[in-house]
Each structure stands twice: as C-alpha cells, then as structure tokens.
Amino acid sequence: MTERIMKEAGPACEEAGRMTSEDRRCQLMRVAIKLFSRKGFRGATTKEIALASGVTEAMIFRHFPTKEDLYRAILDHKASEEPVEEFLKELGEFTERRDDEGLFLAIATRILDHASRDPDFMRLMFYSALEGHELARSFREKQFKPLNDFVADYVARRQAEGAFREADPTVAVCSFVGMAVHHWLFTRLLEFHAVEITDEEAAKLLTNIFLNGLRKEASPAARARVQEPVRKQR
C-alpha cells in the first residue's frame, strides 16, 4: 500500500529534497488523505504517513505538531478549496427566480462532481463518521448545515407559495442529498453498476424524480422526463 500511495502522491515524493515548506505541507496532507481514507484516523499512523511521503516522522511533526493538527489542516484546506458561502451565492440566483430545476440540478451536480474528483476525501468522510471524530463532525456542521438550511428555507417558501406539497423541508432536502450520495456510493465506492448512466444523466434524473414527488402537480412534460427509459442494464 505504501508504494502505491507514494506513486499516487505524484513526483513530490521523488523530489523530497527540493520542496518549499508549503509544498511539503501539501504533499504530507495529500499522502495523509490517502492513508486516512483507507485506514481511518485511528488506523493510519504518522510513521506510515512519513514512509509513504519519503520523509522522517520528525519532518511531519515539524509541520504538524500532532496527528490531530495534520487532520485539522486537511479539513481546513478542503473547506477553503470550495467555500460553501460561494456556492450559496450561486444557488441564490436560482432561488430568486424560483428555478426549482436549476437549484436542485446544481446541488446534485456539485455532489457528484466533487465526489468523483476527490473520492479519497469522500472515503475519509465516511471513515470519520464511523469513528465519530469530533474534528470531522465539526467540519460537516460548518460545511453541510448552511447548505441544508438554505435549501430547506427555499422549500418552505415554495410550500407557502403553493408550489410544493406539505412535508418537512429539512427531511425533503436530506432525502434529495441522500439520493445523490447513494448514487455515488453504489456506483463508485461499491462499484455496483446495475445501470450504465453518467453523472450528468444521474443528476438530471434525480432532480426530476425528486421534484415530481415534491410538487403538488407535476406537469406533463416533467412526468414524461422522469418516465424516460434509463440506460441499458447489465
């Protein structure tokens, strides 16, 4: 596993003596993400991270005094890559014009795109949930709750306007997010390919299914879209 992670970490491992301090931090976090995603926070040791990075443990502790600090740095870095505040601004454009399809399609697309681009971090998040790690729980609270609250408020607004059926808005949003996560979990993590479908097609289909169930009366065009046959089954 260590040799494979060294290769996956890229040329940084081969150029260990020529890195800037920031490059070294990034390399260590990159390797640590891969190990944490495979063995969990408790299972991965700093010795293994150092070995896979081609450095000594002392080098890790020079940049991150403890394994907790390394884990915290990873979560902070991931949060800064795609700030939830910026995504909420993008979604605000859909809510202002009551573009239900655009809103939920953007959310499903974001989830599937992020999971496909960074599967190791998704695995790390699953592991952290199983371990009940406090830092990861705080990360999920800061990153996911604002999105859930924002969309739940929109669902409640559309219910008040008579567009959506009566249902707990928070449960509705969690159900939609769960559909997208479940799709990635089955097709990518568990590699269960019962249906051949792209992420783009999946995002559109999930959006149609969800909205046709939430709206008081689905339009004929919307019903036709959700009844379109999916890709061939194996």
Percent of residues in helices: over 70%
**How many runs of DSSP E, i.e. beta strands?**
0
Radius of gyration equals 21 Å
Q: What is the mean pLDDT?
A: 85
Please state the structural category: mainly alpha
Taking the alpha carbons of the first and last residues, their distance comes to 32 Å
Characterize the main sheet: none
Name the overall outline.
elongated
Would you give an account of this structure?
The structure is a single chain. With 234 residues, this protein is mainly alpha-helical. Helix content is 75%, strand content 0%. The chain is built from twelve helices and no strands. The chain has helices spanning 2-8, 21-43, 46-53, 57-63, 67-81, 84-96, 100-117, 119-131, 134-160, 169-189, 199-214, 220-226. Helix 9 (134-160) packs across helix 10 (169-189). The model is unreliable at 10-16 and 229-234 (pLDDT under 50).
